[in-house]
Design brief:
Layout (H helix, E strand, L loop, with lengths): L7 H8 L5 E12 L4 H10 L4 E10 L4 E15 H15 L2 E6 L3 E7 L4 H11 L5 E8 L5 H6 L4 E3 L7 H14 L4 E4 L8 H6 L4 E5 L11 H7 L4 E8 L9 E8 L6 H24 L3 E4 L2 E4 L2
Helix pairs in contact: 4-9, 8-9
Length: 302
């Protein structure tokens, strides 16, 4: 058939991109606890000659649900779509909520304001190959950290934000997420509150860091507040972003002991370390498909 005689369906088929093939996958699944779940997954994999590299599960007996994470390899490259189609019968049998992920690095959009410690830490770990991710873009409402990002070869886009321009700024952010094919948004000390509409659109794919072991010392000068109260521990909490400010499902927390000799500046430095460590671990675990939402909580397979 000559090109001039192609049907619309044939022409569309010719322009389709080839399916992305891979040999490394991770299956995460949740369902009501019942007999045969692990056996069903293992039979699906073994019958196709797939090799299980890692398997973890958590039985939430209180809720009567089970969560599993299984990493496996295939002898020949295969598309994720083909695997999902084949696995759908097992998923239907157990009424699973599941996700199949390949080894493609997670594409990150980092949001920052003026503090650079979390950005610097994430850039370092990314350059060392420790995040299983690609930092595709840095977005900020200030220009302060442009040199840090661009010095690492990362595009830096300034999106100014005022009280009146917030809808336009968030619309621009969504455009960038689509343009750069972003999988995960990381608020790496971005000091602006996202709208309820935006947090809903980013549900399960936006992580924030909070400068407290628990939601406390809210507002300005948190380390001065901590110093005035004579705290003995400084901590940080990495969590998914929700409309409830700083109250999303917790992924990771870091705590460092301090004492009366620490002034506000020293407490701030310790806090920056805790924030960087908690955030980097949360991002890494998310990118490795180790975090599963469980209602208002999370299951983290480390």
């Amino acid at each position: 058939m000559s090109p001039l005689n192609l049907t619309e369906q044939d022409a569309a088929a010719l322009t389709e991109l080839p399916a992305e093939l891979d040999t490394e996958f991770v299956l995460t699944a949740s369902c009501v606890d019942q007999v045969g779940i692990v056996a069903g997954v293992a039979e699906f994999l073994s019958s196709r000659g797939f090799n299980i590299k890692e398997h973890q599960q958590f039985d939430n007996r209180g809720a009567g649900r089970v969560h599993i994470r299984t990493a496996f390899t295939t002898p020949q490259p295969i598309s994720r779509g083909e695997l999902e189609q084949e696995f759908s019968a097992v998923a239907e049998r157990f009424s699973m909520n599941y996700q199949l992920s390949n080894s493609k690095p997670t594409r990150l959009l980092l949001m920052v304001s003026k503090s650079g410690h979390c950005l610097n830490d994430l850039i370092f770990r990314w350059r060392q190959g420790n995040l299983n991710a690609e930092i595709a873009l840095v977005v900020s409402n200030h220009e302060d950290l442009r040199q840090m990002a661009e010095g690492a070869g990362i595009p830096y886009i300034h999106v100014p934000l005022t009280k009146d321009s917030k809808p336009q700024s968030e619309a621009r952010l969504l455009e960038l997420i689509d343009e750069f094919d972003i999988d995960l948004v990381v608020l790496a000390r971005y000091m602006q509150i996202l709208s309820d509409d935006l947090t809903t659109k980013l549900s399960g794919r936006a992580i924030n860091i909070h400068h407290s072991f628990l939601p406390g010392f809210k507002g300005a000068r948190p380390y001065h507040q901590a110093h005035d109260r004579g705290v003995k521990m400084i901590g940080a909490t990495a969590h998914y972003v929700t409309a409830d400010l700083d109250e999303g499902p917790i992924i990771e927390q870091e705590v460092i002991r301090v004492d009366h000799t620490y002034d506000p500046r020293a407490l701030s430095q310790v806090g920056q370390t805790a924030e960087s460590q908690a955030l980097s671990r949360a991002v890494k675990w998310h990118c490795e498909n180790r975090v599963m939402l469980d209602g208002s909580s999370t299951v983290v397979f480390r």
